[in-house]
Amino acid sequence: MIILTGNDLTLDQVVRVSDRMEKVVVSSGAMNRVKASREKVEKMIDSGKPIYGVTTGFGDLISERIGLDKIRELQTNLIRSHSSGFGEPVDARTVRAMMIVRANSLSKGYSGVRTELIQSLVDMINANVIPFVPEKGSVGSSGDLSPLSHLVLTLIGEGRVVEDGKTVDSKTALSRKGLKPISLEAKEGISLINGTSYMLANLSLGYSDSENLLKHAIIAAGLSMHVLSATERALDCGLFEARPHLEHGIVAKALKSFLQGSERIRKGTESKVQDAYSLRCIPTVLGSVLQTLNYVGGIVRTELNSATDNPLVLEEVTSGCNFHGEPLALAADYLSIAMTELGNISERRIFRMLDKSLSGLSPFLAERPGVESGLMIPQYVAASLCNENKVLSYPSSADNITTSANQEDHNSMGGTSTRKLRQVVRNVKGIIAIEMLVSYRGMIMYGSSGKNVNTAYSILNEYLGDFKGDRETTTMIEKVTRLIDSNKMLEEIPIKLDMPASSSS
Q1: Which residues belong to the active site?
Q2: What pLDDT sits at residue 502?
Q3: Is the CATH code 3.30.450.40 the one for domain 2-195?
């Protein structure tokens, strides 16, 4: 059970709700703050003070005054008019993440909504109701207006939900789950959609998946080093005391621990002075990815417990810019670049294992070169994924297109930044899976040794079985990606990347 307080939501809890559909409740303390905030809003409405989005129009329509008899209609019309998007529906995992981060933000008590509204949102999470949310349409400022509006449509009994891959009328779906639509009161529509929840859901899950993938990338890199009989000289801790980026040393230590007992590494260390960059620079490149993850993780943790709508109920109802996605957009673009680099260096090791002039191994790891092509084409696939990532890692946050008749004249484009991050991460997973597949073939042909290398070999053998001769490898790549998703390797081969307690990173 996840208890929302508005102040303590963790990334692990978001993942537990997204992936394992863990139940959610809101704390009594949070509900008391929400009630107090709502009372302030109602008093201000009664006083006749103009409140943006409550007694005024939205965006460039701010000068339009709204009569008290039209306040409820204004909020419902806002949701309908802003429900404009394009593309495939957002996956259920991401929609659940959207809902929990939105519920937690509202639970901080700055948004002026009723407790009933937050409870309705929590009820949808617990009943696993998945609103139909088009993947494209957010410019990442004024919050994620389009995606969140589609989410709220279901809350009010309009729009559609996704059930078993099909779209179903929301009202019907709610009824089947024993839920009733809610009617929106003053300020509730704008409080629900004027936030960063779509960006944050994507960034949170993209970050979590990247963190997991970095650990698997260290295993994959270690297997490649083993197959290629690399020297472990470049893992000497003294190197990382001379250039003390902590994360570089942490990766080197994890890699050295993984390779302990490898006979091929021992021979390589005895016979070689140094290796090519894709082997020698693993701690520097992957350590830099870890640095990026540490930075992005701080952004995610702060945003998970932030009030991100506008206006906020402080001493007065105050308009600001908490809805702007700039911190998320920049973080997502930064992480996309880092993960693209993770894929790039992995592909170079794949190439090196398959080129006989670089590896000293059978060309393309074929048993009968010429008659068989071996693993020539999986490297093509990795190259294709790297190419796509290079396109996707161009920063969306470098762009700006104005909206709402120039009232909203700078947008973060974080919806695009965070959405394409997810695709970059999926592609990198494919690249790492291919590196593991190629290493597995190398170990079949040239042997494995050392506790951790042998464990990784055994797990790959369990998933892939015998691998002789030419065969279709798409299915094998898919099996390794499922292995990565299962975390089975990390359960048996712990990869420790924790920063020292004394570090401020």
Answers
A1: 52
A2: 64
A3: no
